[in-house]
Each structure stands twice: as structure tokens, then as C-alpha cells.
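Researcher: Re-running this chain for the archive, since the previous output was lost when a drive failed. Same request as before.
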Amino acid sequence: MTSLNFKHLHYFWSAAQEGSITRAAERLGVAVQTVSGQIAVLERSLGRALFVAQGRGLALTEAGRTALAYADRIFQLGDQLVDDLAQPDQGDRQRLVVGISDGLPKLVAHRLLAEIQAAPARLRLVCHEGEFEDLLADLAVHRLDVVLTDRPATGGGNLRLISRPLGELAVGFYAVPSLAERLRPDFPRSLAGAPVLLPTRHNRLRDQIDRWLEETGIRPDIIGEFEDSALLQTFGRSGLGLFPAPLELAEAVERELGAFPVGPLGGVCEQIFAIANARRIAHPAVEALCAVRLGSAPSLAL
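Model: Regenerated C-alpha cells:
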């Protein structure tokens, strides 16, 4: 198949948005025959019909809907390129666009990004938070340079991803001082009936905590479940209940949340991954981030 002609794709995109070749021609300031001709060339190059007639207008075929989804991403990225290059010159400052999974503790993300910000290279961070699958979709169309998350990417499709394990952090329960002082002496038996805040069952950490509770035979009072780790910690900071967090970050948890370790959850670890596209020309800041180690483990190439 011949290479994609983006001018042809733009004519198709305009017609799909307008729902009419006539209106698309008016919008583009060209003849109707030009628009229809360019779309016909695109359809021949793709080997699929993109439109079918519907009354006096047009309707997208299944192939047309697929092409429109890609065209939306392509031209949105084009607009973003223009906007980014219109910004004041940043000199030698590198721009790193990071996606942070909503299940990953923000204190962990901060620690990782602070390490590469401290490097000699000047860096301008742009951080986005979202759900794991949404972030991978943005990574696929290069809206993101890297995704920080608690799980590796799964295989499948034509997209080549590299999941770099950055390590594991042992997890314990934290609480505000009054609750921590009361429950710490007899931990973990003191957890029986104690108020606890946990991630939802979509979170990999929750599976480990549930297994730990089952193995110890302890039944706390689970008074809240949260998809977003930052919201979970906000409720924990208010004193509503104990909450899990990495023990290695105890100083940061105390400083930012006013909470103290109550006890460790034996064998429960927060896994940290950086996911990036496999590129021939690597982003220096992504390479630096993937070199950070909270522990050691082999890379998983997909």
C-alpha cells in the first residue's frame, strides 16, 4: 500500500466533520469536485470505502469510523505541535510529558520525578493523571512520553512498549498520631475492628492487602475504598482511618500527610513501572527516568 497522503486525509476529515462534501468544500475554500476527488484517491489507497450515501448527506462506513478516529488524533497532535512551538523558547530545557496512573501514590511519583529533575539537564515537566488504559492510549499516539504506574503493559497489537520495573517498596499501614499511638503496640492484632481505608479492587495493591488480611485472620472495619490514591490519602490525613503507603517514604508521609507508620504488611509491596514506546531515538529524560531504581528487576519488552 502506498504511503498515507495527509492532504487527502484532511479532506476526508473535514467532510466527516461536516457530514457533507459541499460544506467541507466551503470550509476548505475549494471546489466540491476537489474534495470528492481527493477522498476517492484516499479510498483507493486504503482499499476501503469510507462513506456511503445517506439521503442528501453522507454516512461513515465502519472503515470510515476507524479512519476518523485516527484522523482526530493526528490533527489534534498537529494543533498541539503548533501550540507547543508557539511557546516562548525554553533554550536547552527538555520537555517531558508524564502520565501518572491514578492508583500510583503521588509521593512515589514525586520521588521518581524529583530524582531526574535534580540531574544536570534542565527539565520542564508536564504531568497528567488518569486511568491506566487511558494513559496507554495517549502514549500510543505520543501525547505522553512515559507512563508511571503500578503494573506492566500487556502484550498485543502493533504497538511496541517497554515496561521498565523501577522497583518495589514495602508497604505498611499509616495513621494520624492519636490513632497510630493507640494501634501500634499490639499491631497487627490491633487492626481487628479498626477503621481502614483501602484502594478499590481494581488496584493491584488491594489484592495483596486482601491476601495479607486473610492470612493473618484479621478483620478490620473497611470504611472507605478509593480509586484515586491521592483522595485515599486525603481521607487518611483527616484521621478517618488507617491507610497503606510505602514504608520507605515515611518521612514524606509525615511531612505531607501528618501520618506515622503503625506497622508493616509483611510481603505486601508497591510495584512501580515506567512504560514507554520503543523508539529508535530515545527521549533522554525518559532514559534517565527508566534508569532510576527503587529495587532491581529485568525489563519486560512487549
